[in-house]
From TrEMBL:
<feature type="region of interest" description="Disordered">
    <location>
        <begin position="798"/>
        <end position="829"/>
    </location>
</feature>
<keyword id="KW-0963">Cytoplasm</keyword>
<dbReference type="GO" id="GO:0051231">
    <property type="term" value="P:spindle elongation"/>
</dbReference>
<keyword id="KW-0505">Motor protein</keyword>
<feature type="region of interest" description="Disordered">
    <location>
        <begin position="545"/>
        <end position="596"/>
    </location>
</feature>
<feature type="coiled-coil region">
    <location>
        <begin position="880"/>
        <end position="942"/>
    </location>
</feature>
<dbReference type="InterPro" id="IPR056532">
    <property type="entry name" value="KIF21A/B_hel_2"/>
</dbReference>
<comment type="similarity">
    <text>Belongs to the TRAFAC class myosin-kinesin ATPase superfamily. Kinesin family.</text>
</comment>
<dbReference type="Pfam" id="PF00225">
    <property type="entry name" value="Kinesin"/>
</dbReference>
<dbReference type="GO" id="GO:0005875">
    <property type="term" value="C:microtubule associated complex"/>
</dbReference>
<feature type="region of interest" description="Disordered">
    <location>
        <begin position="735"/>
        <end position="762"/>
    </location>
</feature>
<dbReference type="GO" id="GO:0030426">
    <property type="term" value="C:growth cone"/>
</dbReference>
<keyword id="KW-0677">Repeat</keyword>
<dbReference type="Pfam" id="PF25764">
    <property type="entry name" value="KIF21A_4th"/>
</dbReference>
<feature type="domain" description="Kinesin motor">
    <location>
        <begin position="2"/>
        <end position="361"/>
    </location>
</feature>
<keyword id="KW-0547">Nucleotide-binding</keyword>
<keyword id="KW-0206">Cytoskeleton</keyword>
Length: 1408
């Protein structure tokens, strides 16, 4: 059984319509075929266009699978496609409380269908009095996340468990079926319970947001329903029924099991389109690896040339779980989901090719029964076969000859031949009747024309008279045919009446019934029917002869309306029959397929009409027979009553006469009175007797007609049965004719497609041959030059060298040395003697072993063919990649032009609404709009051409892939294989060397370019800042500065480095308190720290670099590298950047090409320049006498630097770059600190340590030595302090105990606290600018907003998928750094409007 493939095209999204995307798919009406691009067609079992509904997809794809599960067949349905193509929507694993019933997916509908089927089978068994079948339904829900099988029904599973190794094992039983160990299996008893389980598992599934899909599935989900059914064995046929009736009443039960896999595959994705980073990128790579393994399995099963090879089920756990579904015991349906937009053209093409390969997979589907049920079924089948053979022996179909051999009876063959002949005769009779009708119509036409000619000669003809004559003639012919039919019926009735009257009466003289009531003699009725058929045939012949008379005689006959009969001789009859036979033969020979089809339809219509008439007549006859039977019973009852009355009256009369004779004193009056009474009774009874006699006569008359009715009823029933058989035969013939025409049409379509493909193939081969010719010419020219050079080198050499050679060594190493020698000489090496020795070896071997030389030549030819094939594949892939790049570039241009078109349209509408009189501006906008539309049309045409070229290259690639390279390699001998391996090794080494050289050159050029860009960017930045300071006093300079800013934007955008990308605003985040507006990407590892100004952003990372970003342009300016380890803290002040790594603080002057001017150590030493530049590798160890520096902070004036090193804080005077003192007092390492300034100009330093305490230091200007804390905040936290932030007179602290505390700096006491503010460490705190809100971030990636006055929560969201390490703010935005290698820029509701200005500036810079 082949795997069924369905293709569904989702509707276009609103975003795609806004961006101007075109539809690149077209579904052929009435055919399961989709056309991609211009002419690339793919055919599947079902194709559903964009307007398809969920119900249609379920009815066509899944409904039959559920019914098969009730019969014990396994089933699988899985959805495949790119991310965002509608797989989860189609399968129904994504739940929404507002989803209507018509949008339910496959799984909810299948569950409902399953339980309705169970209820129907139970009800049917109860109605038939059979034992009710027992069902046991259980469910499993698995998730394959990063190649780990997870149980979605496991309620004890934590989110962090995804990163640990799963305990679920996959095994294979003796029959080859796959099962899992360690998975939760839930027994389900109702539809609602099953849906609750499905919902619970779906909500536990891993999902995330990407640039292509807001809610993207990040794992493969497999929902499995196990069905176990115990039911009474169903009888196979009537023989089994008779067997069961004859046997005992013991019921036989069978156990059927089935499993149904619903697989929702995660979408294949490209990282450059999804924009995935961090964990999202790892998930995408894992998803693509699993789908690649699935594609390899499908290729191994579907490719005819690879069916005998190994199927790599064990390459992935996904393919291992689906082993039964792909090539195993399962009815499998694949739904390929695609996008119709042209921006997803390559993804759609790959999906369609993927599905096309899956159509060739063959599954081995069997019923899942227990062993006892299988044995019982086999025995029942064998018994049925034997009983069928026994029945054939009894009926005489089979017979055993004298030699003991079985054979088929000749009577059976003769009966079959007679039936075929009977059918042929019926067809001929039908054809004769149609020929007679056609001749009658033609005769009518001729008579009317002749009459018109006669009238026209007399001068009285007109068109109306001609039409009237034609109608009269037609009516006369119809009446004549009806008269002949009436005469035939009358003659038949007269014969029947004569035959009935000749029969004996129904009642004899003795009062008993006649034997005729028992029915007529069968033999007599058969002869009567044959006689009637013969006479009807004679009537038909006479009727035909009448119609074939000369037209003139017939016209005179019609005009005179003479009803005389015309007698024809036997010769006329024979001539008519011969003419009919000739007409039939000629018509049979000249009929075409279309005429046969029309004849079949006409015959079918006539037979259907006759069947309806005959059926109605039979119903009337049966009703009349039932009425006759009822009357007969009534009359018989009345007759019996009257006879009983007569007997009673006679007895009473005898009794009265006896009494009268015995009574002597009877008066005469009394006698008269009694006599009168009896006379009155006698008269009444006589009247009743007369009525009954009349009824008896009527009854006798009805009985006479009964035999006629019975015979007519039998005849009509036979005719009806024969007509039904003819109808069935004609319908079969019509179906066969339709099938033949459909096959012929499909064959023609295939031939056309084959011719087109051959034409494209020939064109491609022509191009290949031309390229091959050019390559051969180059090779020939090079070889000629080599031969000429060799001849020059060989001439002065003596022949003694050849005789001194050792032949065995040459013969052993020739196959390796000769090619190497040729390669060496071709590369220009001067060693000519070595080449001469090898050539001499080749000459000796040529004379001694010609077979080896022949093998080497064959191997060389194979190597050249393989090399050409490899070159062709590389060129094809490079060309396709270039075309794809061009198409993506065109799509981006179209998107940009569409955005500009919408912007100009809105501007034009706004101008028309505000100032309708301004026509000049509107006219210019209209011209610009027309220009944009023309450019968009041109780009659309270019995109279509690019898609067509890609399709052509893909077809050429498929045709090239048809040439199996493995067949060439497999046909090699050992010597040839060694030869090919040597060449492959040399080619790989050469290519690797070339790649390494190119890579080193690229790195050198990138370094130069980077240095140049850094210098240029720094100089431009400094120039811009200097001009900005002077522009405050010079308006003209300010205007020029705006133009310079645009120029700087263009310069910065040309740098290919990190970039700040805008984040589209989703509907769910518009009403939130915090909104992500941009994201900075460029670090290769986790970002640990962040600092910001209004124009610049500084980030430090585990990749040992600190990057400087321009918030105006949205681009990276420079990267400060050369750190020994992770950059854990960064600060900026007046063109100086301070970065911390291990025990060193580097001071960078970004005005002078990002040069490190000082290096400070945790012990208080100051070094000029970069002391860490000598070490290029990562250094984890800290030098002796030094401590790890955790954080640094600058005082508000930027003159003093505080560095938390160990359990103390170093104080540095930045004006002299000297260490002036230490802040002492903590027992554990200082993890964080913050600096504020009091009213008298003192620095207020607040530190948080791992010893759970927060301390405050007052540092006056010029203080030296050790400084003790002025206050120790009580009560302490329950764990180490991770973050501190000051707002006015309040201090906020976040700790590893998951809590946040608010302290009053004036009173130096605790005001408020939130014990469990987060579920994990509070790693960072920040105050929202110009707003009474506090932002906190935890190690779980969650951000929360708090009101600074009450510490009440204002909202929360998942800011990052990884821990949040640092938070920084400027005058308008917030910045969060995370382990996912990104920095997100946030805007809070209620903050300054400057954030919108910054966002608009960045958006405009990126769009330009």
């Amino acid at each position: 059984m082949s795997l069924s493939v369905c293709h569904r095209i989702r509707p276009q999204l609103a975003k795609e319509k806004i961006e101007g995307c075109h539809i690149c798919t077209f579904v052929t009406p009435g055919e399961p075929q989709v056309v991609l691009g211009k002419d690339k067609a793919f055919t599947y079992d079902y194709v559903f266009d964009m307007d398809s509904t969920q119900d249609t997809i379920y009815a066509n794809c899944t409904e039959k699978l559920i019914e098969g599960c009730f019969e014990g067949y396994n089933a699988t349905i899985f959805a495949y496609g790119q991310t965002g193509s509608g797989k989860t929507y189609t399968m129904g694993t994504g739940f929404d409380v507002t989803i209507p019933d018509e949008e339910l997916g496959i799984i909810p509908r299948a569950v409902s269908h399953l339980y309705k089927g169970i209820e129907q089978r139970r009800q049917a068994a109860a109605d038939q009095g059979r034992p009710v079948p027992e069902f046991k339904i259980s469910a499993q829900f698995l998730e394959l996340y990063n190649e780990e099988v997870l149980d979605l029904f496991d309620t004890t599973r934590d989110i962090e468990m995804r990163k640990q190794k799963s305990h679920i094992k996959i095994h294979e039983d003796a029959s080859g079926s796959i099962y899992t160990v360690g998975v939760t299996t839930r027994t389900v008893s109702s539809e609602a319970e099953m849906m609750q389980c499905l919902k619970l598992g779906a909500l536990s599934r891993t999902t995330a947001s990407t640039q292509m899909n807001v809610q993207s599935s990040r794992s493969h989900a497999i929902f499995t329903i196990h069905i176990c059914q115990v039911r009474v064995c169903a009888p196979d046929n009537e023989t089994d029924n008779r067997l069961a009736n004859s046997s005992s009443e013991v019921e036989e039960f069978e156990t059927l099991t089935a499993k149904f896999h619903f697989v929702d595959l995660a979408g294949s994705e490209r990282l450059k389109r999804t924009g995935a980073t961090g964990d999202r990128a790892k998930e995408g790579i894992s998803i693509n690896c699993g789908l690649l393994a699935l594609g390899n399995v499908i290729s191994a099963l579907g490719d005819r040339s690879k069916r005998s090879s190994h199927v790599p089920y064990r390459d992935s756990k996904l393919t291992r779980l689906l082993q039964d579904s792909l090539g195993g015991n399962s009815q499998t349906v694949m739904i390929a989901c695609t996008s119709p937009s042209d921006q997803d053209f390559m993804e759609t093409l790959n999906t369609l090719k993927y599905a096309n390969r899956a159509r060739n997979i063959k599954n081995k589907v069997v019923v899942n029964q227990d062993k006892a049920s299988q044995q019982i079924s086999a025995l029942r089948t064998e018994i049925a076969r034997l009983q069928m053979e026994l029945m054939e022996y009894r009926t005489g179909k089979r017979m055993v000859g004298e030699d003991g051999l079985e054979s088929i009876n000749d009577m059976f063959h003769e009966n079959s031949m007679l039936q075929i002949e009977n059918n042929n005769l019926r067809m001929r009779v039908k054809a004769m009747q149609e020929a007679i009708d056609a001749q009658g119509a033609r005769l009518t036409q001729l008579l009317s024309e002749q009459a018109n000619q006669v009238l026209s000669r007399a001068g009285e003809g007109s068109e109306e008279i001609g039409n009237m004559i034609q109608n009269y003639i037609k009516e006369i012919e119809d009446l004549r045919s009806k008269l002949l039919e009436s005469e035939a019926v009358n003659e038949n009735l007269r014969r029947n009446l004569t035959r009935v009257s000749s029969r004996p009466p129904f009642f004899g003289s003795s009062g008993t019934f006649s034997p005729a009531l028992l029915g007529p003699d069968p033999s007599q009725e058969t002869s009567d029917i044959i006689e009637i058929a013969k006479k009807d045939l004679e009537k038909l012949k006479r009727k035909e002869k009448k119609k074939k008379k000369s037209p003139l005689a017939l016209s005179e006959h019609i005009l005179k309306t003479d009803d005389r009969e015309e007698g024809d001789g036997e010769e006329d009859e024979e001539d008519a029959e011969e003419e009919e036979m000739e007409a039939e033969e000629s018509s049979d020979e000249s009929d075409s397929d279309l005429d046969e089809k029309e004849d079949f339809q006409a015959d079918l219509a006539n037979i259907t009409c006759e069947i309806a008439i005959k059926q109605k007549l039979i119903d009337e006859l049966e009703n009349s027979q039932r009425r006759l039977h009822t009357l007969k019973q009534q009359y018989e009852q009345k007759l019996m009553m009257l006879q009983s009355k007569i007997r009673d009256t006679q007895q009473e009369r005898d009794r009265v006469l006896h009494n009268m004779g015995s009574v002597e004193s009877c008066s005469e009056d009394k006698t008269k009175r009694i006599k009168a009474e009896y006379e009155k009774k006698l008269s009444v009874m006589n009247k009743e007797l007369q009525k009954l006699q009349a009824a008896q006569k009527e009854h006798a008359r009805l009985l006479k007609n009964q035999s006629q009715y019975e015979k007519q009823l039998k005849k009509l029933q036979l005719d009806l049965a024969e007509m039904k058989k003819t109808k069935v035969r004609l319908m079969k013939q019509m179906k066969e004719q339709q099938e033949k025409s459909r096959m012929a049409e499909s064959r023609r379509n295939r031939e056309i497609a084959t011719l087109k493909k051959d034409q494209r193939k020939q064109e491609h081969q022509l191009k290949l041959l031309e390229a091959q010719k050019r390559q051969q010419e180059l090779i020939l020219r090079r070889k000629t030059e080599e031969v000429t050079a060799l001849r020059r080198q060989v001439r002065p050499v003596s022949g003694k060298v050849t005789r001194k050679l050792n032949p065995p060594e040459a013969s052993q190493d020739l196959s390796h040395r000769a090619p190497a020698g040729r390669t060496y000489s071709a590369s220009g090496a001067p060693n000519g003697a070595r080449y001469i020795i090898q050539a001499s070896c080749a000459l000796i071997l040529y004379h001694r072993r010609p077979v080896g030389v022949y093998s080497t030549r064959v191997a060389r030819g194979k190597w050249q063919s393989l090399e050409r094939r490899i070159s062709d594949i590389i060129m094809q892939r490079v060309t396709i990649s270039n075309m794809e790049t061009d198409m993506n570039r065109l799509l981006k241009q179209r998107e940009e032009l569409t955005r500009r078109r919408d912007k100009i349209s809105r501007k034009r509408e706004r101008l028309l609404a505000e100032e309708p009189e301004v026509e000049k501006d509107v006219q210019s906008l209209n011209e610009e709009l027309e220009s944009l539309l023309a450019n968009i049309d041109y780009i659309n045409d270019s995109i279509s051409d690019c898609q067509a070229n890609i399709m052509q290259m893909e077809e050429a690639k498929e045709e090239g892939d048809a040439v199996d390279v493995s067949a060439v390699v497999g046909s090699c001998t050992l010597t040839e294989a060694r030869f090919l391996l040597d060449h492959f090794m040399s080619m790989a080494i050469n290519k690797g060397l070339q790649a390494a050289q190119k890579e080193s050159q690229i790195k050198v050029l990138e370094g130069r370019l980077k240095q140049t860009e850094i210098n240029s960017a720094t100089q431009n930045q400094l120039l811009f800042h200097m001009l900005k300071e002077k522009a405050e006093f010079n308006p003209e300079l300010d205007a020029l500065l705006g133009n310079a800013l645009n120029l700087l934007i263009v310069v910065f955008l040309t740098c290919v480095r990190g970039v700040i990308n805008p984040v589209p605003v989703s509907k769910s985040s518009r009403g939130g308190s915090l909104q992500c507006i941009h994201i900075a990407e460029g670090h290769s590892k986790a970002v640990l720290c962040v600092d910001s100004t209004d124009d610049l952003l500084f980030t430090g990372s585990k990749d040992r670099t600190c990057k400087v970003w321009n918030l105006v342009t949205g681009q990276e300016i420079m990267s400060l590298a050369g750190h020994p380890n992770n950059v854990v803290s960064v600060r900026y002040s007046s063109s100086l950047v301070f970065t911390v790594s291990t025990s060193y603080i580097k001071v960078w002057d970004i005005r002078d090409s990002a040069k490190c001017i000082r290096t400070l150590t945790s012990s208080g030493l100051v070094n000029t320049g970069d002391t860490c530049a000598a070490s290029t590798n990562r250094t984890v160890t800290i030098p002796a006498g030094e401590n790890q520096i955790n954080q640094i902070f600058l005082n508000p004036s930027g003159t003093v630097l505080y560095a938390a090193a160990g359990n103390s804080v170093r104080v540095w005077d930045l004006r002299r770059f000297v260490c002036t003192g230490k802040l002492m007092g903590h027992l554990g390492p200082v993890m964080c600190l913050t600096v504020d300034q009091t009213g008298n100009g003192q620095d207020l330093v607040i530190t948080g340590s791992k010893d759970h305490y927060i301390k405050m230091f007052d540092v006056t200007e010029g203080a030296v030595g050790s400084i003790s804390p002025t206050h120790n905040f009580e009560p302490p936290h329950y764990d180490g302090i991770e973050s501190l932030v000051v707002q006015g007179d309040c201090l906020f602290s976040g700790s590893r105990d998951n809590g946040i505390k608010k302290w009053d700096l004036t009173r130096k006491d605790l005001q408020q606290q939130v014990p469990n503010a987060h579920r994990d460490w509070v790693c960072a705190l920040g105050v929202v600018p110009a707003s009474p809100m506090l932002l906190s971030g935890c190690r779980g990636g969650v951000l929360k907003l708090w009101h600074t006055d009450t510490l009440s929560p204002l909202g929360e969201l998942r800011g990052h998928e990884s821990p949040i390490n640092s938070i920084s703010t400027n005058s308008s935005c917030l910045f969060t750094a995370s382990d996912d290698r990104t920095v997100k820029i946030w805007r809070a509701r209620g903050s300054l409007d400057g954030a919108a200005d910054v966002a608009d500036a960045i958006d405009e810079a990126v769009s330009n």
